[in-house]
Design brief:
Length: 171
Amino acid sequence: MPRRGPTLPAQNLEHFNTASPDEAHRTLLTCLHSPRWARRVADHRPYPDLPALLAAADEAAYDLRPADLAEALAAESLPTLPDDAYSAAHTALAAAHAAYESRFGHVFVICLDDVSPGEALDRLLAAIRSRLANDPEDERVVTAEELRRLARGRLVRATQGRHAPSAGAPR
């Protein structure tokens, strides 16, 4: 059986499709803080369904220039740990973030949408440690992909009427 993508109630997509250009642009900027990306996605409305909207968002993300990525990264914040995480985890994450930012010059981003809360800490720490070994160009590619995945998840939540954590909000 083919895997189906996320569905979207028709009225939510209709609202996005008929929103003013400014409102659509503002909504999109909460998903990825790249004016170029938001403009491209908003300008191609209307979308017949959610998969078409997500495909357009993906395509626009793949076309981001280094300056666009830098702008989007500047609005992101560090992934946060659950409040009940032990203090050693906070210390380890703070040290890993500092090493990452020193090496690559920007905040570490990762999409944990498909990770259970119980696995998030381990996945986050493993990913940041692993990615510290990347060369800068390889890490730029990984970072761009993580931003695309973050934007996609935020866009799904925004168009489903749930609050999409804005760029910079904890994920």
